[in-house]
UniProtKB/TrEMBL annotation:
This is Type IV secretory pathway, VirB4 components. It comes from Klebsiella variicola. Pfam families: DUF87 (PF01935). PANTHER family: SLR6007 PROTEIN, UNCHARACTERIZED PROTEIN YJGR-RELATED. InterPro entries: HerA_central, P-loop_NTPase, T4SS_component. Residues 373-576 form the Helicase HerA central domain.
Length: 706
């Protein structure tokens, strides 16, 4: 019995089989299902219709499509679209091209009994343990005893790290070229095994009629010669050595673009083209549709007619790509926080001096030495009672940052930065963008796994850690939540994240809580107002990159207007967690991320909170906090100490009840002074005046002054 028996029966779907390097007519295990409609719906949810083309390309995917999250489905759909797109670029040449799933290649070779990491074509077998390498698509070309390798790295969703993607494509080509080029006995065995993989893939393509009946005839006529390993690894003259195909959301890509980098062609395609690539059969795309016209492909990237072989001596050897320590951080492109950062802006920060005001005695300007390399951190905290000029001062600081081309973010949960509260000069110099969250949900998920920094080692959260973090935010804001309810919330979130990853939503959480028989429904009722506010959405095209890389707005104000206090606090904490993750991934000392938080005493100041982490660890990630508060009385001693670590402090006239507290801060900040002296100076401050305590330049050197 062959696979044709199952394929001929239209009532069942051939999902998966274990082939173990046997002939195409002999299989050890075959998985089929009568629920054809179910699997067709799963594929359709990802924008596809050609269930057979999913099966033909990767025999393991379809079985797992039922349980994987939306992000994984989107990635796999992107790979299907990319292999069809890449095949259309090269199929009109005199080379016979066979698209392979790199993941499928390793899976099938693993069927002989090895672990995946020990399968024939895994790098672990060759003692390569780390480094960027593509695991998406490999186009294998056959012509006159020469074998061509064209790797295709695929990215779907947000703008990728192109440098890393190009490295991945080049490393796959380098690795397989080295593996198949040696004259050792092991290399000859690999050459034969590799051809067996290709032939098994061809069997699947023929079974599902993915290609025309005669497409592989020339190759199959000489398959015995290829199986003996009698071939050379070759490269094409005047054609890219690999491809990086990115299916990008409409907000970052409006039309196809093509650019070369390190010998690899970077292809950016709007997400709107992906459904057409996936839904049309490959034969239709190859023979009836004009892919060059649809995707605006330049003529030099359409491989047509006779091809030329690059001379061997002209080949440049590729170095092994080994990740630097910073490259070992988890990659946020499959479940990323929002979107990847764009090209870095010029380093204005290193020369930036933020003007605070004028010395009332000398008339000289007073600066926050923002860009000085010896500054321990770029945090500034403003103390003072209501109505003394704190908000006006913050606007002045942000104007100076804007003049230095540094974009800033204000999370406004106090309604202090509403449009009618902004100074005309501030509006003119920063062109602020007000993002009203209740009308415009922000593109993030509270359930996205964050990266945690453990002394320079970055580890991604496990589902139970995500659950603990999210539950902790709820528990901090809603102090009436009991231990039993917190335990239920932890269990529900952990289960949801295990099932759906970052695609898990607040609405999913609410639904799961309502299904709990004991504490769940009551807790769901308490959390429902946040869910109904619809403040976050994975479908939104707004991201932190839009805030800190904006060409039009030098300040962005996240407006939490119309939200009650508890929801505002929850929203702020979740935003800060996502911001911290963004900073860990894309921030640096040279690229500041200024964040303004007013009435900061209302937030979570625990060491493990996002604010606590930003205060203590934010410097190396570029985090620059501008904090304002009226009182410190509700904070514990250790929480106050973290606030006092800010290198610059501005103290406006305090409320009488806070005068002694602020005077004590000044005494500790300026050794050799006395609290009583500071109490007198604080009492003499008028509206708009403040004491500036921080490091100031004195003959080119930083010196603590007031």
């Amino acid at each position: 019995m062959t696979l044709d028996f199952f394929h001929a029966n239209q009532c069942i779907v051939l999902i998966h089989y274990s082939d173990q390097y046997t002939s195409s007519a002999s299989y050890d295990a075959i998985t089929v299902t009568a629920q054809r409609g179910l699997f067709e719906r799963v594929v359709a949810q990802s924008g596809g219709k050609q269930i057979n083309e999913f099966n033909a390309f990767n025999g393991d995917w379809l079985l797992k499509m039922l349980t994987c999250n939306d992000t994984i489905r989107k990635e796999r759909t992107g790979i299907i679209g990319a292999y069809k797109f890449a095949t259309c670029l090269v199929h009109q040449s005199d080379i016979t091209w066979v698209p392979l799933s790199v993941g499928e290649m390793i899976r099938v070779s693993g069927n002989i009994g090895l672990k995946m990491t020990d399968s024939d074509f895994s790098r672990n077998v060759q003692r390569y343990k780390k480094g960027a390498i593509s695991d998406d698509i490999l186009l294998v070309g056959f012509k006159e005893g020469n074998l061509y390798l064209l790797p295709v790295e695929v990215k779907t969703g947000s703008t990728p790290d192109y440098k890393k993607a190009v490295q991945q494509a080049n490393e796959l080509r380098r690795y397989l070229t080295e593996l198949l080029s040696d004259e050792t006995l092991a290399s000859k065995l690999y050459r034969g095994l590799f051809i067996r993989q290709v032939l098994m893939q061809i069997d699947k393509y023929r079974l599902y009629n993915v290609f025309s009946n005669d497409y592989f005839e020339a190759l199959l006529a000489e398959k015995e010669e290829w199986l003996r390993g009698n071939y050379a690894i070759a490269e094409l003259e005047n054609y890219p050595a690999g491809l990086v195909v990115s299916h990008l959301e409409s907000g970052s890509c409006f039309e196809p673009s093509y650019n070369m980098q390190d010998g690899v062609l970077k292809v950016d395609l709007p997400m709107s083209l992906l459904p057409s690539l996936v839904q049309h059969p490959l034969q239709v795309l190859m023979n009836e549709k004009d892919i060059a016209q649809i995707c605006h492909v330049p003529a030099e990237y359409m491989l047509v007619g006779q091809t030329a072989l690059k001379k061997r001596e002209s080949l440049v050897p590729l170095d092994v790509v080994v990740d630097k320590p910073e490259d070992l951080k988890p990659n946020l492109q499959t479940e990323e926080p929002s979107k990847l950062a764009a090209e870095p802006t010029p380093d204005y920060a290193s020369e930036c001096r933020v003007e605070i005001g004028q010395n009332t005695l000398t008339g000289e300007k007073v600066f926050w030495e923002y860009g000085h390399k010896d500054l321990a951190n770029r945090h500034l905290i403003i103390f003072g009672s209501s109505g003394q000029g704190k908000t006006y001062c913050i606007q002045g600081l942000l104007m100076s940052l804007a003049d230095a081309q540094i974009r800033s973010l204000v999370i406004d949960y106090t309604n202090g930065f509403l449009p009618n509260h902004l100074e005309p000069e501030f509006i003119e110099r920063t062109n602020p963008k007000s993002n009203i969250l209740c009308n415009e949900p922000f593109g993030m998920s509270p359930f996205r796994a964050q990266k945690q920094d453990f002394g320079g080692i970055f580890l991604e959260e496990k589902p139970h850690m995500v659950a603990g973090r999210v539950a902790s935010v709820f528990n901090k804001v809603y102090s009436t939540i009991g231990e039993r309810q917190i335990a239920v919330l932890n269990e529900v979130i952990e289960s949801g994240v295990q099932r759906y990853g970052s695609a898990y939503s607040l609405q999913n959480m609410l639904d799961d809580l309502n299904e709990e028989e004991t504490a769940g429904p009551a807790l769901a009722s308490k959390l429902a107002p946040l869910v109904k506010s619809n403040l976050f959405s994975s479908d939104s095209d707004k991201s932190w990159n839009d805030v800190f890389e904006s060409e039009h707005h030098r300040s962005t104000i996240m407006q939490l207007a119309s939200l009650n206090h508890d929801i505002s606090m929850l929203c702020t904490e979740f935003l800060l967690w996502d911001l911290y993750s963004y900073a860990c991934s894309y921030g640096s000392k040279e690229k500041p991320i200024p964040i303004v938080l007013d009435e900061v005493q209302n937030l979570d100041h625990r060491l493990e909170s996002p604010l606590g982490k930003m205060l203590t660890e934010g410097r190396k990630f570029g985090v620059s906090l501008i904090l304002a508060t009226q009182t410190l009385s509700m904070l514990r001693k250790d929480e106050q100490d973290r606030l006092f670590q800010a290198c610059h402090k501005l103290i406006f006239a305090p409320a009488k009840t806070e005068t002694k507290t602020y005077a004590k801060i000044l005494e500790l900040s300026m050794p050799g002074t006395k609290q009583a002296e500071w109490e007198k100076q604080l009492g003499d401050l008028s509206k708009g005046q403040c004491l500036s305590v921080g490091y100031h330049l004195d003959n080119g050197q930083l010196k603590m002054e007031c």
